[in-house]
Design goal:
alpha+beta; about 20% strand; 4-stranded mixed sheet; Glutaredoxin; about 90 residues; globular
Length: about 90
């Protein structure tokens, strides 16, 4: 099971961009669709402390938030640290 979870909806542009950024890091993730899946949606809302927008991204137990927060972490050089702390294997 992947240490990265991405909750997404069909047709979500921010979800597409989040996937691209994660792909550029060379990491794997588990995608949990919430479109027409109330159980997944409720899980996402509970896990994200009430957030209902997608994507919602988790790296290990760390709640990244959405795409913009993911981009901010990458821009600040923190994304690699969080991946390392969660034990996510990245290409060398």
């Amino acid at each position: 099971m992947s240490q990265i979870t991405l909750y997404s909806k069909w047709g979500c542009g921010y979800c597409v961009w989040a996937r691209r950024l994660l792909r550029s890091k060379g990491v794997d993730w588990e995608e949990v669709p919430v479109t027409f899946r109330p159980r997944n949606f409720q899980q996402m809302v509970q896990r994200s402390h009430g957030r209902t927008t997608v994507p919602q991204i988790f790296i290990g137990d760390y709640h990244v938030g959405g795409y913009r927060e993911l981009v901010d972490l990458e821009a600040n050089g923190r994304l690699d640290e969080i991946l390392l702390e969660a034990g996510v294997e990245t290409p060398t």
